[in-house]
Design goal:
Neuraminidase; four-stranded antiparallel β-sheet; 36 strands
């Protein structure tokens, strides 16, 4: 070999070694500090793309969101909003001259602001007493409609001052109403606007302006209670006299109405009369504004279509296809559907169109990249990346991600995402940690990066495999797959997890004596089911999980969910509740279990956690329970998120890797740095 070539190879190998030596496995704070990108909105003329970036503010103990802009031509990015308060929900004016957003930067409630894309100070437009929920520009750019609560703060204060604080369960509601205001007036000083809907018989959810600006189509439920989601219907509001006409009325939810370009039809998301809609496909349906029978146009599509845009080319919608996600177009006249985006494994979302419908902006992640902003022509889909947010993880050693599949106990094909250590060697046996998503209609995808609850890349860096199971019921695999766990919750899900583990053991990659499992919400329930029904695992973590469906049914804020999946209530069908409840199998529990739960969780009320904890303790099974103070179903602040991750890391590091078991009540804390002034005093 020539001497020059040998030297060149040596230099290349040396460079690779130096780069690898500089990389390191991230720690918990590294993961929490990673910025995330979402909320993509392209301007009407295609010149700018707005997006939001969420980052950690440890001083405030908050995740703060701000708006950024990308120049579609040059790719130059700039931060548009700043400060301690979050700014989100960016929406371009129809002419692309203004960008509106919501923020609580002035006062404690969200208001609407606008700002020029080329800079300058943001202008506050609204002073809604109860803050702004959702909003939309009129198509002529002269008005904005928004929704806000009708809560009467003065009356509430007077009652509390006289009688103390109390709530009459499922009798007291604050309804969401539509208001509008004139932009020109609001530019002079913030306005309250004009109230358009009133009363206690409709709670407005989603809405859209007609092309001529004379009407607003909206969906509404009979009240804001989640148990009444099935009552959502579609209405038309005439702005000349604020009269309301019901356009769609049928069983199951009908929501998110959007106008046709000519203003003569409405497209909306519909259960099409199906009262058991939690696990069934939704449809896109079209109806004339004059009324008549609604017409489903996506019966041939076996997934949930999410409306994106209706323009001269047809109706565009977003949907999952297994672990991928794409933009589709449907002809509203024929129902013919075509996929717009490619390749097959694309994982895209947040699609936004220019006014002429020729360009789109969207976000997309991959096994090697965080969510980034892309722009493309709609007729010749060839995405061009505008952001480089993935650069922030270039110095980390991260696991590799891929989709695998196997057969479950009943023959169903199950997919999962397998994360391998960066230096994976298929001749070795590794410990395995299963992370189970919530839902059950959630989905795990092979994307960077896990930065909440479960620090998978830290475990991968230590030499573990991570398996995320898209168990029966997961989104992306069609209606029949989603219904495989109807009246079989927990049982079938357990088959899918355990068969995935056996699949990897049979490949020779897994040490069967070092397998753990964890999950949050529905993933927490499946973990609880596994901790009481099998001894396959050496340790389990149950996050906000159900342990007893009967207890859950009577306490949750979303009781219809249980009926849809189990078929009846606990009094009328106790057998199915027993079959699917972890507590039924508590006598055979052996697995050390960590239980994590939010103090004020209404979705999975905390009695489920206490019940499981006591059942395990009564049988001398090692159990720890941690209650995160002040939180509901999710943990939403960085410091508490750090605790959740630290507790999981310590738990599994002990049972999987043999580290000492940490004392959760007396954690080891970092030493505070001594100031120079204090050092001088000590020295003297």
């Amino acid at each position: 070999m020539p001497k020059r070539l040998i030297i060149s190879l040596f230099l290349i190998l040396s460079f690779i070694s130096i780069v690898n030596a500089q990389r390191r496995t991230p720690n918990i704070d590294d993961l929490l500090n990673i910025k995330s990108l979402f909320g993509v909105q392209i301007s009407s003329n295609g010149k700018w793309v707005a997006y939001t970036v969420n980052e950690t503010d440890w001083k405030q103990d908050a995740f703060v969101t701000h708006i950024w802009l990308a120049n579609a031509q040059t790719g130059k990015n700039l931060q548009l909003t700043r400060g301690e308060k979050s700014c989100g929900n960016p929406r371009w004016s129809p002419d692309g001259e203004w960008l509106a957003f919501t923020s609580n930067r002035i006062g404690d409630k969200n208001q609407i602001f606008i700002i020029r894309p080329d800079g300058g100070e943001a202008i506050q437009l609204t002073k809604a007493e109860n803050g702004v929920n959702n909003y939309s520009w009129a198509m002529d750019g002269k008005s904005i409609a928004f929704t806000t609560s009708d809560a009467n703060q003065q009356e509430a204060k007077a009652r509390k001052d006289h009688l103390g604080d109390f709530e009459v369960v499922r009798k007291e509601y604050n309804f969401s109403q539509i208001w509008t205001f004139d932009i020109a007036e609001a530019l002079n000083a913030p306005v309250t606007g004009t109230q358009r809907t009133k009363g206690k018989d409709l709670n407005v959810t989603l809405f859209s302006w007609s092309p001529d600006g004379k009407q607003i189509a909206f969906s509404a439920t009979v009240n804001p209670d989640l148990i009444n989601g099935h009552t959502s219907d579609v209405y038309l509001l005439k702005l000349t006299d604020n009269s309301i006409k019901k356009l769609v009325s049928q069983p199951g939810p009908d929501n998110n109405p959007q106008w046709s370009p000519d203003g003569r039809q409405i497209v909306y998301s519909s259960a099409m009369g199906n009262p058991r809609f939690f696990h069934s496909n939704s449809r896109l349906a079209v109806i004339s504004i004059d009324g008549g029978a609604p017409r489903s146009i996506t019966d041939a599509f076996d997934e949930h279509p999410g409306f994106v845009e209706w323009n001269g080319d047809g109706i565009y919608f977003f949907a999952f296809q297994k672990t991928s996600s794409h933009l589709f177009r449907v002809d509203p006249a024929t129902g013919k559907i075509a996929r717009v985006t490619s390749p097959d494994n694309l994982m895209a979302g947040g699609f936004s169109f220019t006014k002429d419908g020729k360009q789109i902006a969207f976000s997309s992640a991959s096994p090697t990249a965080l969510n980034e902003v892309f722009i493309s022509s709609i007729t010749n889909f060839s995405p061009r990346k505008l952001t480089s947010i993935t650069d922030q993880v270039k110095d980390f050693t991260l696991g590799t991600r891929e989709v695998i599949s196997w057969q479950s106990k009943d023959g169903a094909t199950i997919e999962g995402v397998l994360t391998k250590p960066a230096d994976f060697d298929q001749s070795k046996k590794y410990p395995l940690l299963c992370i189970i998503h919530g839902g059950p209609t959630g989905i795990d995808r092979p994307t960077l990066l896990d930065t909440r609850y479960y620090p998978s890349d830290i475990w991968a860096g230590r030499g573990a495999l991570i398996l995320k199971v898209n168990y029966r019921g997961s989104a992306g695999y069609g209606e029949k797959f989603r219904q495989l766990n109807v009246r079989n919750l927990g049982v079938g899900d357990a088959w899918d997890v355990i068969s995935g583990i056996e699949h990897l053991i049979n490949k020779g990659w897994v040490d069967p004596k070092r397998v753990g499992c964890m999950g949050w919400s529905q993933g927490g329930y499946i973990s609880a089911f596994l901790t009481t029904s099998t001894d396959r695992f050496v340790a389990i973590s149950v996050g906000a999980g159900i342990s007893n469906w009967a207890t859950y049914y009577y306490n949750t804020d979303i009781t219809p969910f249980t009926i849809h999946y189990l078929g009846d209530d606990p009094a009328d069908d106790p057998e199915v509740y027993a079959k699917t409840s972890p507590m039924t199998y508590i006598k055979q529990a052996k697995t050390p279990t960590l239980i994590q739960h939010g103090e004020f969780d209404k979705r999975v009320p905390i009695p489920n956690a206490y019940e499981l904890r006591q059942g395990l303790e009564d049988r001398n099974v090692k159990v720890e329970m941690v209650v995160y103070k002040g939180y509901g179903h999710g943990i939403t602040k960085p410091k508490s998120m750090r605790a959740v991750m630290q507790h999981n890391l310590g738990w599994f590091n002990h049972y999987i890797f043999g580290d000492p078991l940490p004392e959760f009540a007396n954690p080891e804390l970092p030493k505070k740095e001594t100031k120079e002034e204090d050092k001088k005093i000590v020295t003297n």
